[in-house]
Amino acid sequence: MTSIDRTAYQGFARMVSGKELVDGSAPAKDEVLWAREKTTTAQHLLALVVWL
After folding, report:
1. How many domains does the chain have?
2. Is the whole-model pTM more than 0.85?
3. How far, in Å, CA of 52 to CA of 38, rounded?
4. Virtual torsion, Cα 19, 24, 27, 29, nearest 10 deg
């Protein structure tokens, strides 16, 4: 079996560093507003904003 680092699906790190959180990983306000218009539940809103 091919190791995970040699595939297109390398996965995510288990921990996010403070530097990554501060460096602008938040969505823009207009993206959130657009996502609110397109979704009907909080779960769908979260999924769409993460996808953006």
Report:
1. 1
2. no
3. 13
4. 130
